[in-house]
């Protein structure tokens, strides 16, 4: 059996309970690990004597390493290539924003520079979305809760992480148990991340959405909708066949009634596929009874992996105006970040990217922070 991450909460808790050790020591161990990453378990103070042999024989401070670090040319995006102990790789992306940019409810925004971490939940992905580089990898394995949390640990050594989005490699809801455990660790001591600043994105795993609020209250839900009709969704997202749009919308209505939270709708703009005026009206009609924030996402090139093209700025703006003007739906256009290091939305796939020019635009406003 492989040595586990000390952040694999369920396993560590089970080992302590079997040995009769009070589990309230666990967060204190995590605090020591965060503050002293190069120390040993024997240096963790004030633990029961029975805890040390368990920790030394079955756990590690970190089972993963930051194998390589790529910085975008504009210095607002950092991509971490993280090597797991089984030799697999995942990617996590740090995106730096300035929350003072833009407006909120027509008023100037407060705050200042801070960072969002985009986290992976799986090695590869089984959803097979045709516009996403990760989907080309196929599914390799689920990450443990510890391997998920370790991405935050690695990223925190570069800068303070304020927001977390589960929009990296994999479908988070297909690794539900580890997802829930990891977020509970992140929102507890010593990480103390605000659940209101954590967003989980899904293509629409209906059975998981139905229990999401009960398990993770206050955590934001984002749905990768990407089309207003089931036939288009099935064309670009093969997994959508298992999650009919009508049933998905029913699940979202129940979720919102129970949670009283806005839902983020992710919508990638594909030229000639889902970006026409008729699509905007269809989307508006689909969503007008829900409280949502629609994020329009420019398609990011993934080389020869697909035949899609990016919608023109004119079509994206026109799409936004229809949703806002005709349906009063709050709609944002996602800024493109990290394209030159293949760290942008839909580009995460384990390889070493070739750097290309990217115009520097300084710090950007963060759409994942709209709810706060």
TrEMBL record:
The keyword Iron is assigned to this record: yes
Pfam families in the record: Radical_SAM (PF04055)
CC terms in the record's Gene Ontology section: cytoplasm
Subcellular location: Cytoplasm
Cell inner membrane among keywords: no
InterPro entries assigned to the protein according to its UniProt record, in alphabetical order: Aldolase_TIM, Methyltransferase_A, RNA_MTrfase_RlmN, rRNA_lsu_MTrfase_RlmN/Cfr, rSAM, rSAM_sf
Top-level taxon of the source organism: Eukaryota
Keywords: 4Fe-4S, Cytoplasm, Iron, Iron-sulfur, Metal-binding, Methyltransferase, rRNA processing, S-adenosyl-L-methionine, Transferase
Biological process annotations from GO: rRNA base methylation; tRNA methylation
Necessary cofactors: [4Fe-4S] cluster
Domain Radical SAM core residue range list: 111-340
Gene3D superfamilies with a match to the protein in the record: Aldolase class I
Main location: cytoplasm
UniProt-listed NCBIfam families: rRNA_mod_RlmN
PANTHER family, per database record: 23S RRNA METHYLTRANSFERASE, RADICAL SAM SUPERFAMILY PROTEIN
Protein's UniProt name: Ribosomal RNA large subunit methyltransferase RlmN/Cfr
Species per Swiss-Prot/TrEMBL record: Macleaya cordata (Five-seeded plume-poppy)
């Amino acid at each position: 059996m492989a040595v586990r991450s000390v952040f694999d909460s369920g396993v560590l808790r089970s080992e302590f309970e079997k040995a009769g050790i009070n589990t309230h020591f666990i967060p204190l161990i995590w605090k020591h690990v965060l503050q002293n990453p190069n120390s040993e378990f024997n240096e963790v103070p004030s633990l029961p004597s029975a805890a040390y042999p368990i920790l030394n024989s079955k756990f590690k401070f970190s089972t993963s390493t930051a194998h390589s670090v790529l910085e975008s040319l504009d210095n607002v995006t950092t991509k971490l290539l993280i090597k797991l102990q089984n030799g697999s790789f995942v990617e996590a992306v740090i995106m730096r924003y300035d929350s003072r940019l833009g407006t909120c409810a027509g008023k100037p925004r407060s705050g200042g520079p801070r960072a969002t971490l985009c986290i992976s939940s799986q090695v590869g992905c089984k959803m097979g979305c045709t516009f996403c580089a990760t989907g080309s990898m196929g599914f390799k394995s689920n990450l443990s809760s510890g391997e998920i949390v370790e991405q935050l640990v690695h990223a925190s050594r570069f800068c303070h992480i304020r927001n977390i989005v589960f929009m990296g490699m994999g479908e988070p809801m297909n690794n539900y148990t580890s997802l829930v455990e990891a977020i509970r660790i992140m929102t507890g001591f010593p990480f103390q991340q605000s659940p209101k600043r954590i967003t989980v994105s899904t293509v629409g795993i209906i059975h998981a959405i139905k229990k999401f609020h009960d398990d993770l209250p206050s955590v934001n839900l984002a749905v990768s909708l990407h089309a207003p009709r089931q036939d288009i969704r099935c064309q670009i997202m093969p997994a959508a066949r298992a999650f009919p749009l009508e049933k998905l919308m029913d699940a979202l209505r129940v979720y919102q009634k129970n949670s009283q939270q806005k839902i983020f709708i992710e919508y990638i703009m594909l030229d000639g596929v889902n970006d026409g005026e008729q699509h905007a009206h269809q989307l508006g009609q689909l969503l007008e009874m829900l409280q949502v924030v629609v994020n329009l996402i420019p398609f990011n090139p993934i080389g020869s992996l697909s035949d899609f093209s990016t919608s023109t700025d004119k079509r994206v703006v026109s799409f936004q105006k229809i949703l806002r003007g005709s349906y009063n739906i709050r709609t944002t256009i996602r800024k493109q970040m990290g394209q030159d290091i293949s760290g942008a939305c839909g580009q995460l796939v384990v390889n070493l990217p070739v750097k290309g020019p990217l115009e520097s635009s300084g710090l950007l406003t963060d759409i994942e922070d709209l709810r706060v």
